[in-house]
């Protein structure tokens, strides 16, 4: 079970043990991380789980799907090169130690 650190917009880090196969959105909401809304429940239909992945995660992840890229066009906060939707990132052991930074707002 990898530990992934979520950094809230105010700088508060929250390390979370994420079961392999869970999405980062599921893990964040299950552990009360402030900054992930996940209105659509993880179906890649709302962009309220926008996050910024670190270089470790960026190197491990496959490219964003066309659907995810379309949703990223609708994010409220600044879109950056490492912007992803947390609902589309499934935890693996290789992600241990990764850091996910959350934007100032989702809605």
From TrEMBL:
Transmembrane stretches, start-end: none
Cofactor(s) the record lists: [2Fe-2S] cluster
Any single GO BP term: P450-containing electron transport chain
Top-level taxon in the UniProt lineage: Bacteria
GO molecular function terms noted in the UniProt entry: 2 iron, 2 sulfur cluster binding; electron transfer activity; metal ion binding
CDD domains: fer2 (cd00207)
2Fe-2S ferredoxin-type domain: residues covered: 2-106
Name of the molecule in the record: 2Fe-2S iron-sulfur cluster binding domain-containing protein
Record organism: Ideonella livida
UniProt lineage: Bacteria, Pseudomonadati, Pseudomonadota, Betaproteobacteria, Burkholderiales
């Amino acid at each position: 079970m990898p530990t992934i650190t979520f950094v809230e917009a105010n700088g508060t880090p929250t390390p979370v043990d994420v079961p392999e196969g869970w999405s980062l959105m599921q893990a964040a909401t299950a552990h009360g991380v402030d900054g992930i809304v996940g209105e659509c429940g993880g179906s890649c239909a709302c962009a309220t789980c926008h996050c910024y992945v670190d270089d470790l995660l960026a190197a491990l992840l496959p490219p964003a799907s066309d659907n995810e890229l379309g949703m990223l066009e609708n994010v409220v906060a600044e879109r950056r090169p490492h912007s992803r939707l947390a609902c589309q990132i499934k935890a693996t052991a290789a992600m241990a130690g990764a850091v996910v930074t959350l934007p100032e707002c989702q809605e």
